[in-house]
């Protein structure tokens, strides 16, 4: 998912670690190249700038230990800073699903992978956590999307709320909550309608559903391939409805990785999961340390 960034950084660090003694100038040159690599990966400018500043401060302020070369030390600082920028100061928590039935509100633009992600998370909770899960689609404008969630439900062996024609999103949300309580479900997913663009109608509907549903988690699903756009979408949704975390999809594709790297710093919201393909198992919790390791190869 970060192939080109990895390659670029690999080149910079190869040169750096091969050189024995490093001058301050070597470090500055290397970090300048790191900055360019981050920008090429579509990391936002303030994030890239801050990143380099922090690594530079550490590099100039640190005593070189004997066990590693100065070059290796710079690589370590970059690794630590990558981890920090990906995760923020606190690692993301597990999904809050205590006090059943816990409602998870899924929001995002059409085509982001919201319905697929809803089903993937439901399957995970069922198989890994032994939870009884209910799915409900609120996409009243697109009957095909409602059907799609029901079909995925059958495929993964998870119940979905029967579709009743003519209901509003808020009515479906209420019915889903009632059904979840009566049926002894642990978790109920509300898959809200997506639109091609953020508009007032979409946000009003999501807000109304949120107010009724009182979700424990509001997860925004965004397409990781869209780079800075994904970060902008997250900022807008967070401002309007408040999100508790982000799921970045299509991280199996050849995106440049900028969305992942800027998300936490720009929005303050953690990436909770990454989507890695179309299959129902193709989702992983987001682990900053591992991703940082992957980026540095
Ligand atoms: P929605 O309109 O946001 O509900 O989007 P869908 O869930 O219908 O997904 C749109 C398309 O993206 C479908 O073909 C999915 O299989 C695909 N998709 C979703 N998540 C991923 C992912 O993580 N990786 C890849 N490669 N495809 C995905």
Automatic annotation (TrEMBL):
<keyword id="KW-0342">GTP-binding</keyword>
<comment type="subunit">
    <text>Part of the signal recognition particle protein translocation system, which is composed of SRP and FtsY. SRP is a ribonucleoprotein composed of Ffh and a 4.5S RNA molecule.</text>
</comment>
<keyword id="KW-0547">Nucleotide-binding</keyword>
<keyword id="KW-0733">Signal recognition particle</keyword>
<feature type="binding site">
    <location>
        <begin position="249"/>
        <end position="252"/>
    </location>
    <ligand>
        <name>GTP</name>
    </ligand>
</feature>
<feature type="domain" description="SRP54-type proteins GTP-binding">
    <location>
        <begin position="270"/>
        <end position="283"/>
    </location>
</feature>
<keyword id="KW-0694">RNA-binding</keyword>
<feature type="binding site">
    <location>
        <begin position="108"/>
        <end position="115"/>
    </location>
    <ligand>
        <name>GTP</name>
    </ligand>
</feature>
<feature type="binding site">
    <location>
        <begin position="191"/>
        <end position="195"/>
    </location>
    <ligand>
        <name>GTP</name>
    </ligand>
</feature>
<comment type="function">
    <text>Involved in targeting and insertion of nascent membrane proteins into the cytoplasmic membrane. Binds to the hydrophobic signal sequence of the ribosome-nascent chain (RNC) as it emerges from the ribosomes. The SRP-RNC complex is then targeted to the cytoplasmic membrane where it interacts with the SRP receptor FtsY. Interaction with FtsY leads to the transfer of the RNC complex to the Sec translocase for insertion into the membrane, the hydrolysis of GTP by both Ffh and FtsY, and the dissociation of the SRP-FtsY complex into the individual components.</text>
</comment>
<keyword id="KW-0687">Ribonucleoprotein</keyword>
<comment type="similarity">
    <text>Belongs to the GTP-binding SRP family. SRP54 subfamily.</text>
</comment>
<keyword id="KW-0378">Hydrolase</keyword>
<keyword id="KW-0963">Cytoplasm</keyword>
<protein>
    <recommendedName>
        <fullName>Signal recognition particle protein</fullName>
        <ecNumber>3.6.5.4</ecNumber>
    </recommendedName>
</protein>
């Amino acid at each position: 998912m970060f192939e080109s960034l990895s390659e670029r950084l690999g080149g910079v660090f190869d040169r750096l670690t091969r050189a024995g003694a490093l001058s301050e100038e070597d470090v500055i040159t290397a970090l300048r190249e790191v900055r360019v690599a981050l920008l090429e990966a579509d990391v936002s400018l303030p994030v890239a700038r801050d990143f380099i500043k922090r690594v530079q401060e550490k590099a100039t302020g640190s005593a070189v230990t004997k066990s590693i070369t100065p070059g290796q030390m710079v690589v370590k600082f970059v690794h630590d800073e990558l981890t920090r920028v990906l995760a923020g100061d606190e690692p993301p928590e597990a999904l809050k699903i205590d006090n059943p039935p816990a409602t998870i509100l899924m929001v995002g633009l059409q085509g982001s992978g919201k319905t697929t992600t809803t089903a993937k998370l439901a399957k995970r909770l069922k198989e890994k956590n032994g939870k009884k899960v209910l799915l409900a689609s609120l996409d009243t404008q697109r009957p095909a999307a409602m059907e799609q969630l029901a079909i995925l439900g059958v495929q993964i062996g998870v119940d979905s709320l029967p579709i009743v024609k003519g209901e509003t999103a808020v009515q479906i949300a209420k019915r889903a909550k009632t059904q979840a309580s009566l049926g002894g479900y642990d978790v109920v997913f509300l898959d809200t309608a997506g639109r091609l663009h953020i508009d007032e109608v979409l946000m009003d509907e999501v807000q109304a559903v949120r107010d009724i549903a009182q979700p424990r988690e509001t997860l925004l699903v965004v397409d990781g391939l869209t780079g800075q756009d994904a970060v902008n979408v997250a900022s807008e949704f967070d401002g309007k409805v408040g999100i508790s975390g982000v799921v970045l999809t299509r991280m199996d594709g050849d995106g440049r990785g900028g969305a992942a790297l800027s998300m936490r710093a720009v929005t303050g919201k953690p990436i909770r999961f990454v989507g890695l393909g179309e299959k129902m198992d193709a989702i992983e919790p987001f682990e900053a340390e591992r991703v940082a390791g992957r980026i540095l190869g």
